[in-house]
Amino acid sequence: MNKELFALIDRLAADHSLSLSQYRQLIDGRTEELAAYAASLAVKVRKEIYGNQVFIRGLIEVSNICKNDCLYCGIRRSNHHCQRYHLSAEEILECCREGYALGFRTFVLQGGEDPYFTDELLCNLIVRIKEAYPDCAVTLSLGERTRQSYERLRNAGADRYLLRHETADEAHYQKLHPAAMKFGERMRCLRDLKELGYQVGCGFMVGSPYQTSAELAKDLKFVEEFSPDMCGIGPFIPQSDTPFGTEKAGTLELTCYLLSLLRLIKPNLLLPSTTALGTIHPSGRELGIRAGANVVMPNLSPQSVRKKYALYDNKISDGSEAAECKAELAGRMASIGYEVVTARGDIQK
Ligand code: SAH
To answer: Which of 190, 238, 308, 315 has the fewest beta carbons closer than 10 A?
Structure first.
């Protein structure tokens, strides 16, 4: 047992901050015992803030049309095997109607960077959702847009925005994205979103190609400094029609460990146990919660499009992953001592 590493975990829990080299030490030195210790502290601190509550978000995958060409992503522009779709405003409203009846009080509109979703269309849609469901939060996850666009959407009533930074290391960012996509632009978007008063989510993939503990340490430092309201992390999973189609997937163990460290960095962080985690392991979702996550985002998209939103291979979309099977999800969470709640689930300040 390496006492120094256990002491570093204690220090993180007390100070919510470590140096880059200490984060790296923790990542390199991970053992089952160390991870179990980090998880126990993470669960304890989360319990103090959120009790045993797990927040749910209805995820509506509004479009798989994307002008970008991210090397890891199955809906990248160059993937000609992807059957493209987007949902109409009416279809999205129908998803919200179903979701509301099921007890969802946050709707997440996520999709590729699809020019169909103009500011005008989105603003009208957001206003209609907020009128119909004033007690619900609207979260957008539609990629990079101008500050003016983010401002319009915010004024129309959008509450939150998810934009994963993907990696906090610029050189690594350029290895995962085509030259046309710039790290600085990603950061500009995140800053703008925060300044405009959104609850902001960043996030990264675990085990993406070329990633080492040095990049992950930077991700942790970035979360510490940027202090987002949410942070989405999940294992990288190869998608066979992409340039990274034969790369190795990230692991359950490292993802769960990082969830625990993130919880200790920012105790009130909204931390989803992601679909990707549920995809690489049958109990991934539960294990994520037990490591310190407190959010799950079941799929509320129309059945007919779920298979088409194929960010990575074998992405799960049925069983407790599906919004209509909320009872199954609630049962699985109850079996590990957690309660799925009907609430907006804002960050506890
Ligand atoms: N266009 C939006 C939504 C992208 S999809 C945006 O830019 O934010 C949501 C997330 O899925 C991405 O941010 C990425 O981190 C993740 N993702 C994409 N491909 C993946 C893969 N192969 N494995 C794991 N996660 C992936």
So the answer is: 308
Asked whether residue 81 is domain-assigned, the answer is yes
Residue 268 lies inside a defined structural domain of this protein = yes
Average pLDDT, the chain: 97
The domain that holds 45 is classified in CATH as: 3.20.20.70
Is any ligand 1 atom within 6 A of the Cβ of residue 72? yes
Q: C-alpha angle with apex 293: 287 to 299, nearest 5 degrees?
A: 85
Residue nearest to atom 19 of ligand 1 (CA): 73
Residue 37 lies in a domain: yes
pLDDT band for position 75 (cuts 50, 70, 90) = very high
Total-model pTM: 0.98
* Pocket of ligand 1 contains residue 113 by CB under 6 Å: yes
- Total domains, the chain: 1
Ligand 1 site-directed mutation target among 59, 73, 116, 183, most atoms within 8 Å of CB = 73
Alpha-helical regions (H) of the chain: 3-15, 20-28, 32-50, 89-102, 119-132, 147-156, 170-176, 183-195, 213-226, 252-265, 275-280, 284-291, 303-306, 326-335
pLDDT tens column, 167-201: 999 999 999 999 999 999 999 999 999 999 999 99
Ligand 1 atom with the smallest distance to the CA of 164 is: 13
The answer as to whether 349 is a domain residue is: no
Cα(231) to centroid of ligand 1, in Å?
13
209: containing domain: 3-341
Note whether 125 and 89 are within 8 A (CB). yes
